[in-house]
Each structure stands twice: as structure tokens, then as C-alpha cells.
Amino acid sequence: MYKSYSMELAGRTLTVDIGRVGAQANAAAFMHYGDTTVLSTATASKEPREGIDFFPLSVEYEEKLYAVGKIPGGFNKREGKASENAVLTSRVIDRPMRPLFPKDYRNDVTLNNMVMSVDPDCRPELTAMLGSAIAATLSDIPFDGPCATTQIGLVNGAFVVNPSQEQWKNGDLQLTVASTKQKVIMIEAGANEVPEDKMLEAIYMAHDINQTIIAFIEKMAAECGKPKHSYQSCAVPAELFEEMKKIVTPEEMEVAVFSDDKQTREENIRQVTEKLKEAFADNEEWLAILDEAVYQYQKKTVRKMILKDHKRPDGRAIDQIRPLAAEIDIIPRVHGSGMFTRGQTQICNVCTLAPLAEAQRIDGLDENEVSKRYMHHYNFPSYSVGETKVSRGPGRREIGHGALAEKALMPVLPSQEEFPYAIRTVSETFESNGSTSQASVCASTLSLMAAGVPIKKQVAGISCGLVTGDTDDDYIVLTDIQGLEDFFGDMDFKVAGTHDGITAIQMDIKIHGLTRPIVEEAFRKTKAAREHIINDILTPCIAEPRKEVGKYAPKIIQIQIDPQKIGDVVGQRGKTINAIIEQTGVKIDITDDGAVSICGTDADAMQKAVKLIEIIVSDFEEGQIFTGKVVSIKEFGAFLEFAPGKEGMVHISKIAKERINHVEDVLTLGDVVRVVCLGKDKMGRVSFSIKDCPEKI
Question: What's the mean pLDDT when you consider all of the chain?
């Protein structure tokens, strides 16, 4: 027998089956939200993993295409590499839950979520977020939950709780908020310039709803939850810290970390570590954990400096942004480029334009998400942090940072009708010391404007950090955190937006949640920083998008044809359109409503393609002048090809002003001649004349 629990959530029924499936996992929650079904499981290894200094948590979100009645594409016809959406969903599940596991826990933990059925009104991503929280809470794995997640949309000016896939895709807000019983623990958002006060209202609406879900989970835990198992703590012994302080005093450690140059600080810490290794050379147990101990010593030093002394490691004021710089056109021959530098964080972004046919196709679970016209990709090579490592392609971090910047810029992009291009921006991390994702937003704004993409407004991004004390009122919010403050602090609160509102948020924390005053202060500080970056850095570099795309970018001409004539332009099996492409070297896209985009770099070739298409869709009315090539000669006349798949006949009597006995006396195959349309004969056939064609003026 299994137990089933249900609650009403945003007008739909959430049902959780416990003990029905997955009995050998530490816990399994069989989730049903509407007709969306997700199996969420939590498992942990029996023993800690040796030789690591971090908590080994893995979160998986598996999209099964049978959930939407699809057979996967490709040769193998089975699911392979995780989609971008799956990776991003795994990250959103991970971020609020990781801080709730013990910091000194070293057992491998896997949270697996398998999407088995999708109801378009109940997003599977949300169902999986709730499922993982429930499974971890009910399991015997040490976990300081429960936590809960709610999504908020904004449709026609009204908030929508847990929106459908269509509302999520087309609304003005995509907000995900996770909470514990007391505080907000994670925020993720994409928005169409939503003001800060409106965003706060949405966040705390979600937080309030989360409390009802937490009460629901607590009821299940009281009846079905397992006692939490004990574990071997990997915390650094207190006596080791005391001995370290005798060899390297807190004052000496402050000097070591107090530098605005990352390389200098790292060299100082290396020397400190070597000094401690020499001192503990005879203690193998301490040597094994010395690197972690030094890390913790640095952390305590930095946090004390910030919280008690109001000193930052690089000497900046609490609200001070690192030196900023912006440049454009640093890469020749690309369609657009921009570089943004913030201290020791430097991003070069390159923009590439292409015909709409180059838009990314998406084969996923959301029927509303089938293609992507704008793509933002982020790369993080090892040299950017002074390390040596072979690149293995984009990982979860790269995909996540790229998606965040993409989300930030989407609201300001021109519509497809205004700018009929597929757009790709690539952020190359040249140097990294904190908040490269938000530097990517700034660099992308520069490269898009330099490329001639008519974005509506400039977008800038900045990150705030946090150091907390023993009480909720004892904290400091830092503007523009560098890497060290990110590593040793409690929060990385990234906010991107325009002058008029927020376009993207991502909040990562390492503590059990934030109070409302902290969130409000973070909003105030990021808004002020955004304004400074836009007004004082981006605008002086490039104030508005260039009026035309660059020299090396493809040009696009748009024309409108009768949708009923699309078949004539395409031809049987694409014969006609392929012939036009072969003759001119252009790319042609045609939409179902008859919008035709001709893309190329040669203006003459593009105009030739336009002319050919116009001829093909022409009704050949009396008086129209055409140029055609002789492709066939008969006794009674000649056939001319005006455009691929479009031929007409000139009767022998209409070839020359004088009488001729044979067509061949005047015309030869391949001749190019001008003709005038004489209209249609009694049988509805269109006729042409060479002799009646007026002379060129």
C-alpha cells in the first residue's frame, strides 16, 4: 500500500504518491500536477567520497519525449545529451537545495527527476522542483528543509501563479522563487522591464504561496518521513585553526588577502600555505586537510574584515564599483564586437547575423518553444583564471551564464518583422574575477549596437554580494563583488535591466535564505549601479545602434507575395527556388503568410533574386516589359524563360516587324530578348511580342 497526498495549488490539483514506486531509493515522490507526471528521487551513498573538499550533489532533470507523444530525432531514436532546458532546470533545482544540506557532508547525493507526462497547463519544471524538495525532506539524508518553489507570470498586467507553458512563454514575467519556512532562498527571473517594486510584489506573493506548500510537505514528513542518518563530519578541527593562528596571525592573513590584484593575493596565499606545511610537516592528518583549512581561514578573515571593519579585500568602499571600460569594433571582419571590462573581469562579445533559416530548432517538451531566433553563448576558458585545463566544451556553468545573458537581452531585441535576422552573440571570457555573466550582458549590448541591431534600449548587469553576522539585522550588502567576495560571501545576486526596469535576475546564496530588507537593498544598489554603467560607460562608447548592419554582415531585402503564389516560387520539390539560389548565390526564406526574405552580401545579386521572384508571382498583365532567354524554338514560335519555372511564348508573327519564314532566322537558343506582354488570348494563354516592345529609353 502507498500513501497519496493532495492539495489545491493555483487552481489545479497537486498529488504526491509516496511508497508507490522507487522503493529502493532513499526516498521517491511520484508527482502529479494536473496531468503532468514526474518521478523525483533522492539517493545518497553509504560512505563519504574520499579526497574531496566539497559536498558532491548531483541534480538531474530527464526529459522523456514520450511525455509529449514524440519519438526522438536522430539515428538512434532515443534521448541522448541533456537539452539546454534540462540543464537550466537542474541548476534551478540545485541552487535552493544545496545550502540546506550540511556543509561538511561528503556523501554523494543524487536528486533525479524524470518527466513522464506533460500537461501544457502544468509546467514539468515546477513539478520537478517540488518533487526534489519533497524527496529530500522525506529521505533519511541530512537536509534542513523543507523548501518549496512557486512560479509567477505576468499576463496583461496581472500576476499568474504557476502559469501554463503558453503564459510562461508569452507573458512579461518568468519568475521562479524558492523559499524555506522563514526566508526566500532562490530567485530566478526573466522580465520585460518590470520595475523593482512590481518585482518585489511578485517575489513575496510567491513566498507566501510557498508557505502553504511547505505546510503540505511537513504533513507528509510527519507521517512518512524517515529519521535522518548520522554521518562522518569533514569539518576542519578547531585545534588546527588555533595552531594556524599561532604561525600565521590574523593580522598577517589580512595583509595576505588585502589586494586588488588576484595574482598577488594568490601568491600571498601560496606563501602562507607553504609556511604552514613546513610547520605541520610531521602531522600527516593535518597536512591532508590543510588546503581546506587555509581556505576557511581566508574566509573567516575576509568576512570579519567586511562585516566588522567595513574593509573590502581590494580596498573599495562598500558601494564602489571596480574601474570600468567599454570598447567596440575590436575584432575586424565580424558583424559586430564589443568588450566590457570591470576590474579583472573582461568579456569580449561578438555578434553574428544570419537569415532566419539559421534560427535554432528546439526539440523539447514545450510545444510553444520550437525555435530560437536569438542565441547567446558564453565561453569560459581556463586561461581566464590563469589555469591550465583542456576545454571539453560548454558545461552547466557555461550554459547557465549564457542563458542568463540571453534572458536579459531578449526584451530589447527588435521583432522579427522589424529586423528579419537570426542573431547570435558569443561572450568570450578573456579574464575572470567575479560576475562574468553580468559583464556578458554589458558586452552583448555593445556588440549588438555595433552590429546595427536596432535594440530598443541599452541593458546593463551588476552583481551584489552579502556578508551576514549572527542575527538577521547584522549584514552588509556589497556592490560589484569580485571572485573572493563571491567565494567567501553568502550571496551572488545578479540583476540586469534597462533604465526602466529589470530584465533578468539570478540569485545564488549559501545560507538559509534572505530577509526582505536584504532583497530590497540589493534591488536599490543594483539599480543605482545599472544607471551608472549605462549613463557613464555604455552611452559614451556607443549611444545608439548603428543605422545599418556592418560591411561584412549579410543584407536582407524583404518583399511580400500572395501566399497562394508561394508554391510557384518554391516549385516542385524546391526546383524553382533552388534555381534562383544557384543563379544569384543568395539565401531565401518564405513564411506561410507570403513574407519573403532575400539574404546576401552582393546587392546586385539580391536585386536579381527579387526581380526573378516578382516575375514568378506576376500575373503578366498587358503592357508589362520582361527580359527572357530563348530556351526552345518551334515552327510556330519561341519559348522564353523569364525566371526559373516561368516560361512564355512569342508567336512567329510577333518576333520581327518584317515577315519571317523560320524562327531560327532571327532567334537562337540562349538569346536574351526584351518582350512586351500582350495579355491573354481567347483560350486564357498569355502571349508576348518582341516586335511591339518599345525601345529602351
Answer: 93
Can you tell me which residue has the cell 516592345? 693
Residue pair 649/639 in contact by the 8 Å Cβ criterion: yes
pLDDT of 68-102, one tens digit each? 999 988 788 888 889 999 999 999 999 999 999 99
The rounded distance, in Å, linking the Cα atoms of 337 and 459 is 16
Contact between 15 and 5 (Cβ < 8 Å): yes
Q: How far is CA 455 from CA 60, 191, 409, 497, in A?
A: 36, 16, 9, 13
Q: What are phi and psi of 446, to 5 degrees?
A: -65, -50
Q: Which residues contact 625 (CB under 8 A, 6 or more apart)?
A: 674, 675, 676, 677, 693, 694
CATH pick for 3-224 out of 3.30.2010.30, 3.20.20.70, 3.30.230.70, 2.60.120.760? 3.30.230.70
Question: Structure pTM?
Answer: 0.88
pLDDT at 573: 87
Grid cell listed for 641: 524563360
Domain boundaries, given as residue ranges, for the chain: 3-224, 238-307, 324-541, 555-616, 625-689
How many DSSP H helices and E strands does the chain contain? 17, 29
- Residue 140's alpha-carbon distances to 106, 178, 221, 321, 418, in angstroms, are 15, 22, 11, 45, 56
Quick one: fold of 625-689? OB fold (Dihydrolipoamide Acetyltransferase, E2P) (2.40.50)
CB 92 within 8 A of CB 125: yes
pLDDT one-digit tens code per residue, 18-36: 999 999 999 999 999 999 9
- The beta strand positions in 561-624, using DSSP E, are 587-590, 595-600
* Cα-trace Rg, the chain: 32
